[in-house]
């Protein structure tokens, strides 16, 4: 019987400890996945395969200096130990050539964390049958990824963390014959065939409206509903240093005015870094326990994400943030708007399913610009009239989630990162939709 990922990690960890020399310290990170990928075109399987990979990140510390190396693992335990020994030797040769790191701070706490989330994933045949049943006659283009993701961490100070979780992510678009598309996603850890079918059917319903003549709007302010996928794009912009202690300390955060107390958001807005129960491990890449962190509560800034390096540089207390100080499991509290009442409450205005190409047009003012994307509709008296031609918006977060925010939906959507750059991501967001009194369209 082949060794489990955790056993492989612990075996390499034992070899590393045995090879350590006096005065040396280490941190040791482990990443692995067993992923099934399926690509679809015209609702048919066009490419299917599996990816099985594992790697370790070794950081060697001695005399105030540090150096690290990434090691790709294979299927042979003996060869893996040899690769680890070679890497250790190379790091020993490198360390004396480096300058002392003035901001090197090591968490010397001997903590222990273990999480094994063994949710049952669907059989691929079930997924394919549902797609054939609900979208077999449609031009469905997308990708399905599923399988266990593992993360491990250990240090010479006695810290040990293990995280293993199963997840799935189906990301797809339905294309109309006129070239327009509806984009949809279903992701999580607990699979529900009924939920998947409901999302497929909603996408088909929206696709029918794309056949109507496109409506062109003039620049101006419009009442709007932003679906969770659109909110995810906005939240993603905030993750670009918005909550970062380093960015806030150097004046480079879009939320600078909020954290300085010079501005506020709507009392409906409460953001948290909600690690517990998420796909992300309860420990950082720097080797600190990662806790839930309240970031914004009822429109007021509360805490920021502080890495060990920022704690040393700016005399703060680290709270388990990764080195890039970006949320790994951002959660926005729900509101009071029932999903079935969205169109009625919107009345006349924009229904925005997605946004894209977002960037800051004025960082200090938290002003963002971007384009509407996929299934943006004009609604009159609670009824969808037709698709809206692509428009650019330019508005401040202090408006969208501040003075202009009317309500958030009761239901929230768990959105897992679709990034597979190097490996499947463990990042996620848990977001409601937002009803705003005014969204500024510029062209």
Automatic annotation (TrEMBL):
Organism annotation: Pseudomonas kermanshahensis
InterPro entries found in the cross-reference section: Metalloprtase-TldD/E_C, TldD/PmbA_sf
Name of the molecule in the record: TldD/PmbA family protein
Domain Metalloprotease TldD/E C-terminal: start-end pairs: 219-441
Family matches, as Pfam families: PmbA_TldD_3rd (PF19289)
Taxonomy of the source species: Bacteria, Pseudomonadati, Pseudomonadota, Gammaproteobacteria, Pseudomonadales
């Amino acid at each position: 019987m082949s060794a489990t990922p955790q056993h492989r990690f612990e075996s390499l960890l034992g070899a590393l400890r045995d090879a350590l020399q006096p005065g040396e310290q280490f941190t040791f990170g482990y990443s692995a996945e067993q992923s099934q990928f399926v690509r679809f075109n015209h609702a048919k399987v066009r490419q299917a395969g599996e990816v099985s990979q594992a790697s370790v990140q070794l950081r060697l510390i001695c005399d105030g200096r540090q150096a690290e190396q990434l090691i790709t693992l294979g299927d042979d335990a003996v060869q893996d130990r040899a690769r680890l020994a070679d890497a250790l030797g190379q790091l020993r040769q490198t360390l004396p050539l480096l300058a002392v790191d003035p901001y090197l701070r090591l968490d010397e706490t001997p903590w222990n964390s273990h999480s094994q989330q063994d949710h049952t994933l669907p059989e691929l045949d079930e997924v394919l049958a549902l797609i054939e049943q609900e979208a077999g006659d449609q031009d469905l283009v997308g990708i399905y990824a599923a399988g266990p993701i593992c993360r491990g961490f250990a240090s010479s100070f006695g810290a040990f963390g293990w995280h293993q979780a199963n997840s799935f992510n189906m990301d797809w678009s339905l294309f109309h014959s006129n070239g327009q598309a509806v984009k949809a996603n279903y992701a999580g850890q607990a699979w529900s065939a009924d939920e998947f079918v409901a999302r497929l059917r909603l996408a088909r319903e929206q696709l029918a409206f794309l056949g109507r003549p496109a409506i062109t709007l003039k620049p101006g302010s419009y009442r709007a509903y932003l679906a969770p996928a659109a909110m995810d794009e906005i939240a993603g912009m905030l993750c670009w240093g918005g909550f970062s202690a380093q960015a806030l300390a150097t004046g480079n955060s879009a939320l600078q005015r909020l954290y300085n107390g010079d501005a506020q958001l709507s009392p409906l807005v409460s953001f948290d870094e909600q690690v517990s129960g998420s796909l992300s491990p309860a420990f950082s890449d720097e080797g600190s326990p990662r806790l839930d962190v309240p970031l914004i509560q009822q429109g007021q800034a509360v805490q920021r994400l502080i890495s060990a390096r920022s704690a040393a540089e700016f005399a703060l207390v680290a709270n388990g943030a990764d080195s890039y100080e970006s949320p790994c499991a951002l959660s926005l509290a729900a509101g009071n708007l029932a999903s079935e009442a969205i169109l009625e409450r919107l009345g006349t205005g924009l229904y925005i399913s997605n946004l894209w190409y977002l960037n800051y047009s004025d960082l200090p003012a938290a002003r963002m610009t971007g384009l509407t994307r996929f299934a943006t509709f004009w609604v009159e008296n609670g009824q969808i009239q037709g698709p809206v031609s692509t428009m650019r918006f330019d508005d401040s977060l202090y408006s969208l989630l501040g003075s202009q925010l009317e309500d958030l939906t009761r239901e929230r959507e768990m959105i897992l990162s679709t990034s597979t750059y190097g490996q499947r991501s463990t990042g996620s967001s848990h977001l409601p939709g937002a009803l705003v009194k005014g969204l500024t369209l510029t062209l």
